[in-house]
Design goal:
Helices cover about 75% and strands about 0% of the residues. By secondary structure, the chain is an all-alpha fold.
Length: about 290
């Protein structure tokens, strides 16, 4: 399967996952514990993808280690500032099943705890920029693996795709939950959620076109995008995870197990044929020195 076709297939699933996120409350009962476990699992997966796939891929493409770390730091800071400015990374409304955890607790991360103070337009804009960056990560991962590996079943960028497709329903749920609280109709929520769902495919397809048609052969743009995306994934995963582990001590064991399972999935994908990234940072540094 060609990278372009694979990106389109991935994007179809991501759009479906985003649309599903907006309908989740009417499909399944989202209890407090279920939401926390899901978030911890996805956070662990994104953490593993950032450090076991995206960053090693960037270095494997001959990006100097120092440069890769700078791009990763840039991605982390950009995502941190987006979250600070738009206050958008607060996931969906779940029902509380533990009476010791009040639904309106100031530390509850299950739902938009600032409720009416949050502007859904700012939330949607921040999440749209965030999901467009996810699309860039997906496009860069697929193109990089297609150029350098023979992946199992030609599923290039599989780990990045899984991290995004499992995280998108949580983001969509944030938007639709806040719109519901603001009195929006089901039609209006569906239209906004549909527009949000298309942002990731837009980012992925634009990056693929740019990297394959305009950037030129041997350009470091793919490696830089991978390192930048690793920083974005780190910020998202730790931003989701750390508040939960700290404030929800009653579920600490469950959340920790879910986290480890997410990291284990990222590690397992790394061991699949064609997905392993052999990185020799000293060798790449010697190459850079010799070329001078």
């Amino acid at each position: 399967m060609s990278p372009a076709v694979l990106i389109v297939v991935y994007c179809v699933f991501i759009v479906a996952a985003s649309l599903l996120g907006g309908w989740l409350p009417s499909v399944v009962r989202l209890t407090h514990t279920r939401m926390q476990i899901l978030m911890s699992f996805v956070s662990g997966l994104m953490l593993g993808v950032a450090l076991l796939h995206l960053l090693p891929q960037a270095i494997e493409l001959k990006l100097p280690v120092g440069t890769a770390m700078m791009w990763m730091l840039a991605g982390l800071l950009v995502m941190f500032l987006l979250i600070r400015i738009f206050d958008f990374h607060q996931h969906g409304s779940a029902e509380t099943e533990d009476p010791s955890v009040p639904a309106d607790s100031e530390h509850s991360h299950d739902h938009p705890h600032h409720g009416h103070q949050l502007n859904w337009v700012g939330l949607a804009f921040g999440l749209s920029v965030h999901t467009a960056i996810d699309g860039v990560a997906l496009g860069a991962s697929v193109v990089a693996e297609a150029q350098n590996h023979e992946a199992l079943l030609s599923l290039f960028g599989l780990s990045t795709f899984l991290a995004i497709v499992l995280h998108k329903p949580l983001d969509a749920l944030s938007i639709t939950s806040l719109m519901t609280a603001s009195g929006w109709s089901a039609r209006g929520r569906s239209l906004v959620n549909g527009g949000f769902a298309l942002m990731c495919p837009l980012g992925a397809l634009l990056f693929w076109v740019f990297s394959t048609h305009w950037a030129g052969e041997g350009t470091p743009v793919i490696a830089c995008a991978l390192a930048f995306s690793a920083g974005v994934f780190l910020c998202i995963s730790l931003g989701d995870l750390l508040p939960e582990v700290h404030f929800h001590k009653h579920d600490r064991v469950k959340l920790s197990i879910a986290l480890l399972l997410g990291v284990a999935l990222a590690y397992a994908i790394e061991k699949l044929p064609g997905h392993h990234h052999d990185v020799d940072p000293l060798g790449s540094q010697r190459e850079a020195t010799d070329s001078r």
